[in-house]
Design brief:
Elements: H1 2-22, E1 23-29, E2 35-42, E3 47-51, E4 54-60, E5 70-78, E6 82-83, H2 87-96, E7 104-115, E8 118-127, E9 130-144, E10 147-157, E11 167-168, E12 173-193
Antiparallel strand pairs: 1-4, 1-12, 2-3, 2-12, 3-6, 4-5, 5-7, 7-8, 8-9, 9-10, 10-12, 11-12
Length: 199
């Protein structure tokens, strides 16, 4: 009887531990309510391009977004979804980003630190075949109903990724090297098992 109770207790303990290990909370990007804009300068005027197709998700060990328990996160942009109001600029941008060879921009979260509604993330960012570690300041807001808003901006130079700033009209229009990426991202909370993450 005692042995049976001990075995039962061990089984229950194993089930509890398994749930703690394998259960996770995943947040997936709500594309319709999110935005990302790339801004820069040129020899004529400032410009901006919007990102229309992006995918992202990150996982936590708990449902509390304000705890530093990040398991992992990633972000993906299809280069051809970066668009302005001018088709020539779009074409020059895709050429500069080597879209045919590298059709996606990828970002992977390496680590995150957070205090209340502000934090810092270190991201492995891959653009046009070159990868660099970058650090970003982010701001978080709990929107309720399992929704989280993450805002921030990233200053970078195209030359850091081996990108030649686009030119047009026989070189009479030149874009500046520095760009700013501004993002306002909304994520929806989902609960799943780690074993289901790859399905």
């Amino acid at each position: 009887m005692i042995k049976t109770m001990k075995v039962s207790a061990l089984v229950v303990l194993f089930v509890i531990i398994s749930q703690v290990i394998y259960a996770q909370v995943q947040y997936k990007l709500d594309v319709k309510n999110s935005s990302m804009v790339i801004k820069g300068t040129s020899s004529i005027h400032d410009w901006e391009m919007k990102v229309e197709d992006m995918k992202s998700a990150f996982s936590l060990q708990s449902a509390n977004i304000f705890q530093d328990k990040l398991i992992g996160g990633d972000f993906l942009i299809n280069v051809e979804s970066i668009k302005s109001e001018h088709s020539l600029m779009n074409k020059k941008t895709y050429e500069a980003l080597k879209q045919e060879k590298f059709p996606q921009i990828k970002a992977k979260v390496i680590k995150a630190e957070q205090s209340q509604n502000a934090g810092k993330v270190q991201v492995e960012l891959s653009i046009a075949g070159k990868t660099k570690l970058v650090n970003e300041d982010i701001y978080l807001k709990d929107l309720g109903n399992g929704k989280v808003e993450i805002k921030g901006s990233l200053d970078m130079k195209m030359s850091e990724y081996g990108i030649e700033p686009p030119v047009a009209l026989m070189g009479s229009i030149k874009t500046g090297d520095a760009v700013k990426i501004e993002f306002n991202l909304v994520y929806n909370r989902e609960v799943q098992l780690l074993g289901e993450a790859s399905k």
